[in-house]
């Protein structure tokens, strides 16, 4: 909704390739219908962002860490490019929440969240949050009042209860995810592990600078293809098979056929989402239970 308020026909938006599937579907299928042009660039390729800037560029949009590949954006550098272009810099901060990362401090103009994820943290309510300067938010409020995406008072209260435990939940999610990422990294049936907390992750140093911890989402590839990936998903008993993330319960998803299933093969390939990729949003259970749940499927490969 906020996109409709910030952009108009004739504007140009630059978006990172690796973003939540529905973000891409919304940009490709809907925003473009209103005469907004969209260019996708690799999140970490600053030259590509710079080169994509056009005289009518009005917005740069990214997620960091990205969903599902956990790439890390250089927020200060992207903010500089957007300022030079006279464009708004918008960051989806779902994976980190304000506890782990404060993009406004690194130069973002607007930060967006699906509150349905960590902000609630227990899969109870659907909601979202848009954060920015009073001046920008005043512009949005008028549009939102007219368009109507209002939260019910009860849901707002539930979200506020979620915020009370957000700090300790994010710390615990991060600790469990780091342990799982290291364990997966050493597993013979696992190919690559995507988690910025791992020292060999290309965005590790940047994440250390921008974030206070690495968050709860770990993606990894398994030996084989779609069939092998699904055998791991289907073998889980503790972990819930669902596209949601940010819950106290660990959730697992096959991005290529679910969260990013509506993308064209080419777009999926561009984003690095292969058929053997699995995304785990690590919850707050005992980490031994999560490892054992994944081990059962990995042992079948
Ligand atoms: C990074 C990111 N942003 C936005 C969304 C959209 O969430 P919602 O459908 O709750 O608005 C998701 C959902 O998975 C996500 O992972």
Instruction: Supply the CATH superfamily name of the largest domain.
Output: Type I PLP-dependent aspartate aminotransferase-like (Major domain)
CATH architecture of the largest domain: 3-Layer(aba) Sandwich
Q: What proportion strand?
A: 15-25%
Principal-axis shape equals globular
The structural class is: alpha/beta
How are the strands ordered across the major sheet?
A: 2-1-3-4-5-6
Residue ranges: pLDDT <50 for 5 or more in a row?
none
* CATH topology group of the largest domain: Aspartate Aminotransferase, domain 2
Q: Major beta sheet, specifics?
A: 6 strands, mixed
Please give the CATH class of the largest domain: Alpha Beta
Account of the 3D structure:
The protein folds into two domains: 2-161, Aspartate Aminotransferase, domain 2 (3-Layer(aba) Sandwich); 166-298, Aspartate Aminotransferase, domain 1, CATH 3.90.1150. The protein has 301 residues and is an alpha/beta fold. The longest helix is centred in the middle third of the chain and has 20 residues, at 166-185. Helices cover 39% and strands 18% of the residues. The strands form two sheets. A six-stranded mixed sheet has the order 2-1-3-4-5-6. The protein is globular and about 55 Å long. The termini are far apart. It has helices at 2-6, 21-29, 46-52, 75-85, 97-100, 134-147, 153-164, 166-185, 204-210, 226-234, 265-270, 287-298, and strands spanning 12-16, 37-41, 57-63, 88-92, 110-114, 128-132, 190-194, 217-222, 240-241, 251-253, 277-281. The protein is built from twelve helices and eleven strands. Helix 10 (226-234) packs across helix 12. The relative contact order is 0.13. Bound molecules: pyridoxal-5'-phosphate. Pyridoxal-5'-phosphate binds next to loops.
């Amino acid at each position: 909704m906020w996109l409709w308020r910030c952009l108009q026909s004739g504007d140009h938006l630059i978006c990172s390739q690796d973003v939540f599937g529905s973000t891409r579907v919304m940009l490709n299928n809907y925003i473009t219908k209103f005469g907004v042009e969209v260019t996708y660039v690799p999140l970490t390729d600053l030259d590509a962002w710079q080169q994509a800037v056009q005289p009518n560029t009005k917005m740069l949009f990214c997620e960091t860490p990205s969903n599902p590949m956990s790439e890390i954006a250089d927020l200060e550098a992207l903010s500089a490019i957007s300022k030079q272009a006279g464009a708004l810099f918008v960051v989806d901060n779902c994976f980190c929440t304000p506890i782990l990362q404060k993009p406004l401090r690194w130069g973002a103009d607007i930060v967006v969240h699906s509150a349905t994820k960590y902000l609630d943290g227990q899969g109870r309510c659907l909601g979202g949050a848009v954060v920015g300067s009073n001046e920008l938010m005043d512009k949005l409020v008028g549009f939102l009042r007219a368009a109507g995406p209002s939260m019910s008072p009860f849901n707002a209260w539930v979200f506020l209860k979620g915020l009370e435990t957000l700090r300790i939940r994010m710390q615990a999610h991060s600790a469990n995810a780091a342990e799982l990422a290291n364990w997966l990294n050493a597993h013979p049936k696992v190919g690559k592990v995507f988690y910025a907390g791992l020292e060999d992750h290309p965005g590790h140093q940047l994440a250390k600078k921008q974030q206070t911890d690495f968050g709860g989402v770990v993606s990894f590839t398994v030996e084989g293809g779609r069939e092998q990936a699904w055998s791991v998903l289907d073998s889980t008993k503790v972990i819930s098979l669902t596209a949601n993330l940010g819950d106290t319960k660990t959730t697992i998803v096959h991005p290529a056929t679910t969260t990013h299933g509506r993308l064209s093969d080419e777009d999926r390939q561009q984003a690095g989402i292969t058929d053997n990729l699995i995304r785990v949003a690590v919850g707050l259970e005992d980490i031994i239970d999560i490892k054992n749940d994944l081990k059962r499927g990995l042992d079948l490969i």
